[in-house]
Amino acid sequence: MGIKLLLDTSFLLPFFGLDLGDINDIVEKLYYKLSNLYFAEISIYEAKFKLISLYRKKRIPIDLIENFWENLRILYDDDRIIFIPYDKEVDANLNHLEKTLEARLGIVDELIIASAMLVGNLLTLDEDILRMRSVMAEKFGLQIFGLTDISELVRM
Amino acid sequence: MEIFEGIVGKKGEIYVRKRFRELMGLKPGDRVEFIVKGDTVIFRKKPNAADLLRRKRIRVDISEVLELRKSFEEELVSGD
């Protein structure tokens, strides 16, 4: 039921104990609405990095770092959560992006996009990626959605 | 503490009382775990992703989280 959608790293963080306000509500809504939630493998590393950074700034307690693996294991065991591994296809997509895009994106942005190209749709809060919506749709057939598109996504 | 009885079927399936299912919040399709310690078995509902969303959370501003991507990329590229 619903579209196949890859979610950017911000939408993975609520599973690791962060309250990001509306983002948490959106993730829960999508979890029940869509058959699967897709994430790029790089988002796991980015999520851990962000948690460690927040801990070092004394913004979150140590248990959010310590519980990371236990929570990740629960996500791995949940059939509705799918992590796209870095494989031959993602690598080919990344190379294709490098050869085709005129404007450069950060490497994490490109890894997220290369993974999302396998799914067809990407939900992100990243302004750099959102600015390239039309290019991505035209050149790679990738539909990119932002927060303002949530109600549309839930209806699809 | 409450003790519940169950029945093992011909194919090994385990039937438990309705009251037990209600107490554990078990619904069709839920995954469960049996932790064996000697001759004692601990039974528990296996949490799923939705359960993680309902746990206690720490409020962080989304802008703070988004800004960290640049730091992540810098560390990836520089290796520092």
Characterization of the model:
The complex is a heterodimer of chains A (156) and B (80). Chain A has 156 residues and is mainly alpha-helical. Chain A is 55% helix and 12% strand. In chain A, helix 5 packs across helix 6 (107-119). Chain B has 80 residues and is an alpha+beta fold. Chain B has 3 helices and 5 strands. In chain B, the strands form 2 sheets. Chain B has a two-stranded antiparallel ribbon. Chain B has a two-stranded antiparallel ribbon with strand order 3-4. The longest helix of chain B has 17 residues, at 62-78. Classes of the chains: A mainly alpha (156), B alpha+beta (80). The interface between A and B is medium-sized, with 40 and 29 residues.
State the low-pLDDT regions of chain B, or none.
none
Terminal residue distance of chain A = 9 Å
Largest interface: A-B, 40 and 29 residues
Average pLDDT of chain A, rounded to a whole number, is 94
Which range does the strand content of chain B fall in? Answer: 25-35%
Give the DSSP E fraction of chain A (strand runs of 2 or more residues): 5-15%
Report the total helices of chain B: 3
Quick summary:
The complex is a heterodimer of chains A (156) and B (80). By secondary structure, chain A is mainly alpha-helical.
